[in-house]
Amino acid sequence: MQKALIVYGPPGAGKGTQANLLAAKLGLIHFDTGKFMEQTVHDPANAKDPVVQQQRELFDTGKLCDPAWAYRVVSEQTKRIHASGLGIVFSGSPRTELEAFTADGGKRGLIDLLEDLYGRENVHVIYLKIKSETTIYRNSNRLICSVCGTPVMYLPEAQPKICPICGGEFRKRTLDTPKVIKVRLQEFEKRTAPILAKLRERGYRIIEVDGEPLPYIVFATILEKLGV
User: Fold this and answer.
1) Phi/psi at 208 (nearest 5 deg)?
2) 87 and 118 Cβ atoms separated by less than 8 Å
3) What is d(CA 19, CA 221) in angstroms, rounded to the nearest whole number?
4) Mean of pLDDT values over 91-115
């Protein structure tokens, strides 16, 4: 049976980086829901959709999208990935208690869906711990390739001009301004972090990992704690 992994952590903790590494190592699909939401709300095809534009306003100001809407679009894609016969790794989703536990008819959420699809014993939760000042520093200096989407770690001595993977130009995300970063951090602490307590109540062992070191060190620690 394939695995379903959820990588949690504050903004800038390296969730996407670790999810990519886990996907490559374990043969999983990385469902980057943050990128998926960003593409959805900024898709020109949705420019006249009032619901999507409402979600765009929330997204671009650092607030979380409506849980019911988020659950609907994420759960549909999750089912498609499972139907392909592959495991899945999330970076940061589900982001609210409602999305995690009650978005589907008030009784079920994404956690229940993952348990149904992959089996409770194959759902694993990882939490990357970093300091709030690390969140602000990493996100303020983050660069994303405008072509392939590769994030580049900020190194003052390097200051790269083009993506080392495809040669594309870098861009900064609309979310990566000091003002928006602080809102995102508040949203995480208020609306996402409580999910971990609920998961513990349901019997989950949260795999806590220090997210401050370099990515390869963090990754090695995750694999060790997963027993891989």
Assistant:
1) -90, 130
2) yes
3) 14
4) 92
Is it true that the peptide bond before 94 is cis, omega within 30 degrees of 0? yes
Burial class (CB in 10 A: 0-12, 13-18, 19+), 224: exposed
Do 94 and 109 form a contact (C-beta atoms < 8 A)?
A: yes
d(CA 21, CA 140): 23
Q: Are 91 and 32 in contact, with CB atoms under 8 Å apart?
A: yes
| Residue 165: C-alpha distances to residues 152, 168, 203, 214, 217 (Å) | 10, 8, 41, 19, 22
SS3 assignment, position 221: helix
pLDDT greater at residue 208 or residue 228: 208
Indicate the CATH number of 4-132+177-226 among 3.40.50.300, 3.20.20.105, 1.10.4160.10, 3.30.930.10.
3.40.50.300
In this structure, which amino acid lies at residue 178?
Answer: P
Residue type, 46: N
DSSP secondary structure letters along 197-216: HHHHHTT--EEEEE-SS-HH
Q: Are strands 170-171 and 143-145 parallel, antiparallel or unpaired?
A: antiparallel
**pTM exceeds 0.85, yes or no:** no
Structural tokens at position 122: 């194959």
CB 40 within 8 A of CB 158: no
User: Across residues 17-37, what is the average pLDDT?
Assistant: 93
In the chain, where does DSSP find H-type helix? 15-26, 33-42, 50-60, 67-83, 97, 110-118, 132-140, 178-187, 193-201, 215-226
List all residues 6 or more positions away from 200 whose beta carbon is below 8 Å from its beta carbon: 206
